[in-house]
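Researcher: Re-running this chain for the archive, since the previous output was lost when a drive failed. Same request as before.
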Amino acid sequence: MKSVKDYIRTIVDFPHEGIMFRDVTTLFADPRGFRMAIDQMLHPYAGMQIDKVVGLEARGFILGGAIAHQLTVGFVPIRKKGKLPGAVISQAYTLEYGEAVMEMHDDAIKAGERILVVDDLLATGGTAAAGIKLIERLGGEIVSTSFIIDLPELGGRKVLEDMGMDVHVLCEFEGA
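Model: Regenerated structure tokens:
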């Protein structure tokens, strides 16, 4: 039987030489693979109170929307700077190859709401940490973080765990 990892392809030297890009679009395109990933991402949270799912741009939107639908809760996107209309809060962070700013609407989460944060890949943890800081600034309580892939060598899991986060991943790949 295939695992989630079996549906993910690796593209060598993308977006830069030396990078092994873990491409989840092949997982998303396969109905069995996609269903398996969503079911496995949901499993640890069976019976838990979750008020909203937050997805990190951009593949986290695909996963977050599907998970929010299954949980019958709202979905909140955290986007790159300048993509959201209306009043937003911002958080700068460092990427593997530069800096960026993430934003979310300043009224997307109410204080005390229980939040599940999802994305496809955990690398250095910078994007997820920025999202977590935005959620916490609005008073959201993060129940857990969930990812399809962890790249352990890049240390993102430790970054999130050092922030007090619960981290779930479906599979790991060695290398960057």
